[in-house]
Known about the structure:
Blueprint: E1 4-5, H1 10-26, E2 33-38, H2 49-53, H3 63-74, E3 78-83, H4 84-94, H5 103-115, E4 119-123, H6 130-143, E5 149-152, H7 154-158, H8 160-166, E6 172-174, H9 181-189, E7 201-205, E8 208-212, H10 220-223, H11 237-240, E9 256-259, E10 262-265, H12 274-278, E11 281-284, H13 287-301, E12 305-308, H14 317-329, E13 335-342, H15 349-357, E14 360-368, H16 372-377, H17 384-394, E15 401-406, H18 415-428
Parallel strand pairs: 1-8, 2-3, 2-4, 4-5, 5-6, 9-12, 12-13, 13-14, 14-15
Antiparallel strand pairs: 6-7, 7-8, 10-11
Bound molecules: iron/sulfur cluster.
Amino acid sequence: MNLVIESVGQGEAIAKAAIGRKLQRMFPNGCKRVLLVNPMGVPEEDYDINVAVQNRYPIYPPYGLGVLSECLQRRGYEANIMDLNFEQQAALKSFPQNFKYNIWRKWLRKKIDDLNPDFVGLTCMFSVTHRAMKQVAGYVKELYAQLPVFAGGVHTSGVPELVLKDCAGIDFAGLYEGNTSLPDMLDFINGKQPESSLTQLCTIENEQYIAITERAPVESNDLNAAADYRDLKIEEYSSLGRIGTYYWLFDDATRASTVLSNRGCRAKCTFCSVRHFNGKGVNDRDVNAVVDELENLRDRYGITHIMWLDDDLFYKEKRTVQLFNEITKRNLGITWDASNGIIASALTNEIVHSASESGCIGLSLGVESGSDKILRAVYKPSTVKHYIQAGEILRNYPSIFTRGLFMCGFPGETISQLTDTINLGREMQFD
Ligand code: SF4
């Protein structure tokens, strides 16, 4: 059976009632304590120990889980985080002779036994992690059949029905950013909010896929929440793996981490999942909240390099300049990079000047194609003219390493258009 009840009109109320009943059934004693888990980045069958030994797998602090943990705690819930991706890499580097991929099972079991959480929340950002998430969810259910398991993250939000059907260990899939919707759900479970407050949540009940696709309104407090990583060793992450694509520009002793300044992107490129996950437009965080977060990372963990997680870092010129000037004014002594692509049409002299002053050492531009026809067809927010102008501006800042992100093989793309792309890359003179 493959019926879908989505949050449109009457269907919304039906979906909320059905999911509400399941939540009440699965949490008869309410919900106070949460364990958020970042699964291994690569499933066992794809894991290459030689790659791991060379620190070539990405090891990112789980920023989304950190923000969720902060938002949950602000509502009075206990949130703990376990990063199996990090733990596994740390174990490999410490005890290479005795390393076994499935060591995570022992750690997870101990963590659950020690904490006794009311539910386990798994994140899955990229499709490559799907099978690892499935393994973790299955293991949790194997040990603790009654313990509810949730999944979230970009991959889960993109294909929630597939995730729920393929991963029998997952009871609920949270959609999109969960910073407000997850605490709302806990409030509902604990009788503090009505069923109508449930948003962004899916499940399978009686073989029927049920989805509430309504988004929770963006709450300013949640938007400005800084990641609280609990007891994760954020200071060790960049010594065990890759953060961003400019890691080779700083020395091994430099500690790097990530921060998000804006959520979402102004554009709606046809091949990109950002708009689906973050919704329409951009929600920009308060500049001081962002710089406070940078300062805290430096003071608490010794972080001196930041990779922005933003998909539209240069959204709003005035605010962007203000952000970089505030970093300079506070003399944070950090460097930063924008490994995710910058929108070329947003790049101005003023922004790049303030970026350079505030410690920018690497910028990537999402170019994709040198053909305006292709750029229009995929709704790219920049034109060839913008790219050429951006290249000219960036050449005035030799201390910033520049990189272009290109795509080839668009539907209907001709050899001539591909040649235009190569020529544009040359003309922009990326490093
Ligand atoms: S500009 Fe980049 S982040 Fe924004 S929609 Fe396009 S590809 Fe996605």
